[in-house]
UniProtKB/TrEMBL annotation:
<protein>
    <recommendedName>
        <fullName>Retropepsin-like aspartic endopeptidase domain-containing protein</fullName>
    </recommendedName>
</protein>
<feature type="domain" description="Retropepsin-like aspartic endopeptidase">
    <location>
        <begin position="11"/>
        <end position="145"/>
    </location>
</feature>
<dbReference type="InterPro" id="IPR021109">
    <property type="entry name" value="Peptidase_aspartic_dom_sf"/>
</dbReference>
<dbReference type="InterPro" id="IPR008503">
    <property type="entry name" value="Asp_endopeptidase"/>
</dbReference>
<dbReference type="Pfam" id="PF05618">
    <property type="entry name" value="Zn_protease"/>
</dbReference>
Length: 159
């Protein structure tokens, strides 16, 4: 594995995360040591075959109530897993690998694709990714870089 590891990087319970390989400069994430796998808000999820391999295409809208910095992403499917949500609902979700930058360190994370539109955070970072050198301080927030506001805002309710 080419991933560099680090130890004991302090992170708050919520952080701004970068997804540079898929063109998402910033997305607000909740760090959740109670969740095993990370999750991201994905919509227009479409499975397809590429050279006999399972792939998935989806869109990420990193800012709530805005289409700024929206990205279309295509990734190989690592797995399809049955995941129980915090409300107890079980659903099958695609799992992909997304390199992310959290508090200045790059890690590869297994991420499930789900509809997080009703959630306060577009991304959740689970303990699989956090176990690669992070210590979460539940009393602190945004210890890494802060994201700027999106340049172009659009009210979803407007025509």
């Amino acid at each position: 594995m080419s991933e560099r590891t680090h130890s004991n990087t302090l992170a708050g319970w919520r952080e701004w995360v970068q997804l540079p390989d898929v063109g998402v400069p910033w997305i607000k994430a909740k760090l959740d040591t109670g969740a095993q796998t990370s999750s991201i808000h994905a919509y227009e999820v479409e499975a397809f075959d590429r050279d006999g391999e399972a792939w998935v295409r989806f869109r990420i809208r990193p800012w709530q109530k805005s289409d700024a910095d929206e990205a279309e992403v295509e990734c190989p499917v690592l797995d399809v897993r049955r995941v129980r949500s915090s409300s107890g609902h079980v659903e099958e979700r695609f799992v992909v690998s997304l390199p992310l930058v959290l508090v200045g360190h790059r890690v590869d994370a297994e991420v499930t694709l789900s509809n997080r539109d009703a959630m306060g955070f577009r991304m959740l970072i689970g303990r699989e990714a956090l176990s690669r050198g992070y210590v979460v301080d539940s009393a602190r927030s945004f210890l890494g870089d802060r994201a700027p506001r999106p340049m172009r805002r659009r009210n979803r309710g407007a025509a």
